[in-house]
UniProtKB/TrEMBL annotation:
This is Nuclease-related domain-containing protein. InterPro entries: NERD. The lineage of its organism: Bacteria, Pseudomonadati, Bacteroidota, Flavobacteriia, Flavobacteriales. Residues 187-276 form the NERD domain. It holds the Pfam family NERD.
Length: 276
């Protein structure tokens, strides 16, 4: 039975790279490969989704505008009816005050009262539309805001959808760029995973440590390379009754081959073996 400790190093590097770029949608290398394979379809689906979402927003605004318009019309009708009823009551009171009084004092009081009511009635009739407008001002303003938004959405539909698409496409293209750059690392992870799969098939009991690393407080002097080893990193360290085995996997790219800073797999094994 093989007891495995630690995650494959390249998988950690892939996750770290994705985190640095703020990408959290991928949970495996298969997710990344699937994304790259279906990129064109996803971009097309994204466009249609943005278009559908936009039209849904417009539909909701139009429904809201319809209800606000109904509410406004009802409020305006009610305000007009209430004001007309009030004016009619004033008119009835004026008719009462026009009737003959019992004495001169009452006649004088009736006359002053009549003048006051006539003045109010005149003001209300003269400013009828303005008074109604004040009573429905809040409802009218809410309706105008929604209608303005609806008109803007309808008139600039293509431009607004394009703007939303540009923002989303920019994120999608950034994601593709990062994912594409990770392909060599993904290939390395696949290779390491295959190695782990083979090691799991070994008979007997053993311990497999993935991405083993250690930093030495006192660097080890390596006479063969005339250098001091301050740290080592081993892709896979297999421990069983037969001994300790250092296993390195490499997926070389042109850049890594050209780099003078990278050790070859053999050099890495020799350094790690000496340090251990």
């Amino acid at each position: 039975m093989t007891v495995i400790h630690g995650q494959i190093g390249t998988l950690k590097q892939i996750r770290k790279t994705l985190d640095v770029h703020g990408i959290s949608r991928f949970n495996s290398t298969a997710d990344i490969n699937r994304f790259l394979k279906n990129f064109d379809n996803e971009r097309e689906e994204l466009f249609f989704k943005i278009e559908r979402d936009f039209d849904l927003e417009l539909d909701k605004m139009q429904a809201q505008g319809y209800h606000l318009e109904k509410d406004f019309d009802l409020l305006k009708t009610t305000a007009k009816a209430n004001l007309k009823n009030y004016i009619r009551r004033l008119h009835s009171k004026c008719d009462v005050l026009r009737k003959p009084a019992k004495n001169a004092v009452m006649e004088l009081l009736y006359w002053y009262g009549l003048q006051f009511l006539l003045l109010i009635k005149y003001i209300l009739e003269k400013n009828f539309d303005r008074i109604v407008g004040l009573r429905v001002r809040g409802s009218k303003k809410r309706l105008e805001v929604v209608l303005k938004a609806i008109n803007g959405y309808s008139a600039d539909r293509h431009a607004l959808i394009s703007t939303r698409c540009d923002d989303q496409f920019r994120k999608l293209l950034h994601m593709r760029s990062v994912a594409t750059d990770l392909l060599p690392m993904i290939a390395g992870a696949v290779g390491e995973d295959m190695v782990v799969g083979e090691l799991k098939k070994l008979s007997g009991n053993q311990v497999l440590i993935n991405d083993f690393s250690i930093v030495f407080e006192n660097p080890r002097y390596h006479k063969q390379t005339n250098s001091r080893i301050r740290s080592i990193q081993i892709d896979h360290l297999l421990i069983n009754t037969s001994g300790i085995f250092i296993i390195e996997t490499k997926n070389w790219s042109k850049a890594s081959i050209a780099s003078l800073d990278l050790w070859s797999p053999l050099q890495q094994v020799q350094r790690a073996n000496f340090a251990l």
